[in-house]
Amino acid sequence: MARRGDPELTRLAHTVIQPGFEGTSPPDWLRRRIDEGLASVVLFGRNIAGPEQIAALTAELRAQQPELIVAIDEEAGDVTRVEAHTGSSRPGNLALGAVDDTGLTEQVARGLGRELNALGITLDYAPSADVNSNPLNPVIGVRSFGPDTALVARHTGAWVRGLQSAGVAACPKHFPGHGDTTVDSHHGTPRVDAGPEELARVALPPFAAALDAGARAVMTAHLLVPAYDPHAPATLSPHLVGTLLRERLGFTGMVVTDAVEMRALTDRYGIRGATVRAVAAGCDAVCVGGESVGEAVVDQLTEAVVRAVLDGALPEERLAEAAARVREFAAWSARRAREAAASPGDGPSPAEEGAGLVAARRALRVDGREGGARLPLTGAPHVVELHAATHLAIDDATPWGLAAPLRALRADTTAARLTRAEADGDDPPVREWLRPAEGRELVVVVRDAGRHGWMARALAALLRHRPDAVVVEMGVPTDDRPGAVHLATHGATRVSGVAAAELLTGQAPPEQRRATGEPATARQR
Q1: Which residues are registered as beta bridge partners of 124?
Q2: Hey, which residues are catalytic here?
Q3: Of 165, 210, 237, 275, whose CB neighbour count within 10 A is largest?
Q4: pTM of the predicted protein model
Q5: Around 221, how many Cα atoms within 13 Å sit in the side-chain half-sphere?
Q6: pLDDT tens, 377-435?
C-alpha cells in the first residue's frame, strides 16, 4: 500500500494529467512536473505565435522528455489552434461530408498531420465522430461530418487514416456521441435519451470505424446517457467507459477526458472530484487547461488523485493501469512521429496543401429563385455579416466571414457587421443598415441562423427590403434557403470564405463553376 508522500504514487498521478499552460515557451513549473512524471501537455491558441515558435516550443519539451505527448485540439475547420489567428486553410468536417469524397477527406487530414508532425505535435484531439442528428445542437454543428451515420462513419475512418499516416495520433470524440444534444457541456450537462439499440445504430458506428482505422485514443463526452447510466456523465461512468467502449467496442487504447473543468462535471463534482471519478471510471488521461490552467491546478489535481488512492476511493491498481496506458501510448505515438519525420518530404505536399481549397470549393452549394439574381455579381457588393457569439471550443479571435476575402478580390467591397445587441428587437433599423448598400449588390452573411432566432428575424427583415440579396450561410444550412441566391459554404473557415468570394466574383476555376452551375445563373430550387 502506498504511503502518504510516496514519490511513486505522485509520479503515477502526474502521468494521468494532461495539462495546458500559459505562454509561448515552457514555464519552469512545467519542466519540473515533467521531471516528476508528467507525460503529456496540451497546446491551445494562447501557446501559439507561429510555426517556428511552435516547433521551438515542442523541441524544448521533447529535449527534456523524448516521449512526451504533445497534444492539440486541432480539428481544422472552425475549431483551429494552429491557425487561430488567421482562420483555417482547411474546411471542417461538415464541408468534407458535403463533398463526400473519402479520398479527399483522407488527403486533407494527411496534410494536416504532416504539418502537425513538423511542428512536433504527436496527438490531435480530432476528428469529431459525432453524428449531428439534432440540427439545433449548440456545440457540434459544422464540427460533424453530417447527420447521416454511414457518411460520418466512412469519413471518420478516412480522417483517422489520413492523420495517422503522417505520424500524428488521432483521438476521435466525443464518445459515445454528442450529436443528439441541445445543451453545451461547457455550460451544463447534456442528456441523450436514446436507447441502446438506437445508440448502436446511430451514434456508435463512427467510433467503431475510427477504431477499425487504427485509432489508439478516444475522448469521452460529459453527457448523461440514462440507457447506460442514469446518474453519471459518460466521462465518469464505468458503464460507458468500461462496458460500452472497452468491452462492447473492444477498445484497448488510451481514454482521454474532454476538458475536466467544463461545468457539466464541475457544477456537481468540482474539478478535483471529477478528476478522481474519471480515473476511477476507466479514463486514463485527464485533459485540463482550456480554462483552469497553471501549476496550482496541476498540483491540486495530482494531490486529489494521490489522496483518493490513500483514502481508498481510487484503487491503486486502477491508477497504475491508467498510467501504464498513457506511457504505452506515449511510446507508440513518439515512435510513429519519428518514423514519419524520417520519411522523405518535409511538411504537406503541394497537393495536400491545396486540398483544403479544393474541398472548400467543392463543398459550396448554390440555390436560386426563379427570376432571381444571377452570379457572378456585376456591381459593387456591400456585405452585411450577422455575427453571433460562438461556443468555447472556437477561439473568439479566429477571423471568419466573407467581407475580407471578397474585398481581396473586389477592392470596392464595403461591409458592416451586426451583433445581437444591434440587431435584436421588434423594430430593427433596417433602413439604416441598408443605407450603405444603396446602388450596390447586397450580400448577407449568416452563421447558424437556424439556431439564433434574432439572426433569422434580422435576415428576414433585410430580405423584405432587399429581396434581391444574396444570402451566404456559413454555418449549418437549414431546409429554408432564403434570398434571391442562397450559397452554403458548410463552415466559417477562412478557406470557405475564399471559395465563396471566388464564386461570387466570377473568379472561381472552371471545375467549380461546373460543379455549382455558376456563374451563368444560380440553380433553381
Answers
A1: 72, 170
A2: 186, 258
A3: 275
A4: 0.93
A5: 30
A6: 999 999 999 998 776 777 777 889 999 999 999 999 999 999 999 998 888 899 999 99
Whether 466 and 440 have beta carbons less than 8 Å apart is answered as: no
Q: Is 45 helix (H, G, I), strand (E, B) or coil?
A: helix
Task: Please choose, from the candidates 375, 395, 371, the residue with its C-alpha nearest in 3D space to the C-alpha of residue 501.
Answer: 375
User: Pairing mode, if any, of strands 123-124 and 286-288?
Assistant: unpaired
d(CA 141, CA 138): 7
Strand partners, 441: 381
Flag the least confident range among 200-214, 312-326, 425-439: 425-439
Task: Compute the distance between CA of residue 364 and CA of residue 204 in angstroms, rounded to an integer.
Answer: 29
Identify the three-state secondary structure at position 485. Answer: strand
Nearest CA to 364 out of 524, 503, 520 is that of 503
Residues paired with residue 486 on neighbouring β-strands, in sequence order: 367, 471
Specify the 3-state DSSP secondary structure of 129: coil
Give me the DSSP letters along 298-355.
Answer: HHHHHHHHHHHHHHTSS-HHHHHHHHHHHHHHHHHHHHHHHHHHHSS-SS--HHHHHH
Cell, residue 220: 469521452
Sign of the alpha-carbon torsion through 200, 148, 499, 140: negative
> How far is 387 from 374, CA to CA, in rounded Å?
26
Secondary structure in 3-state letters for 169-229 = EECCECECCCCCCCCCCCCCCCECCCCHHHHHHHHCHHHHHHHHCCCCEEEECCCEECCCE
Q: Torsions phi, psi of 131, nearest 5?
A: -90, 115
- C-alpha atoms less than 13 angstroms from C-alpha of 321 in its C-beta half-sphere: 13
Bridge partner list, 122: none
Say which amino acid occupies 308: A
Q: Are 15 and 320 in contact (CB under 8 A)?
A: no
Q: Which amino acid is at 52?
A: E
Cis before 27? omega within 30: no
The three cell numbers of residue 374 are: 444571377
The pLDDT score that the predictor gives to residue 272 is 97
- Identify whether the C-beta of residue 501 lies closer than 8 Å to the C-beta of residue 409: yes
In the prediction, which pLDDT does 345 show?
64
H helices, E strands: number in the chain: 19, 14
Reduce the DSSP state of residue 278 to 3 states and report it.
Answer: helix
Per the DSSP assignment, residues forming a β-bridge with 446 are: 473
DSSP 524: B
Please state the length of the chain. Answer: 525
Which pairing describes strands 17-19 and 123-124: parallel, antiparallel, or unpaired? unpaired
CB of 407 within 8 A of CB of 415?
yes
429 CB-near residues (< 8 Å, 6+ apart): none
CA-to-CA dists, residue 101 to 94, 95, 97, 164, 170, angstroms:
12, 11, 8, 18, 20
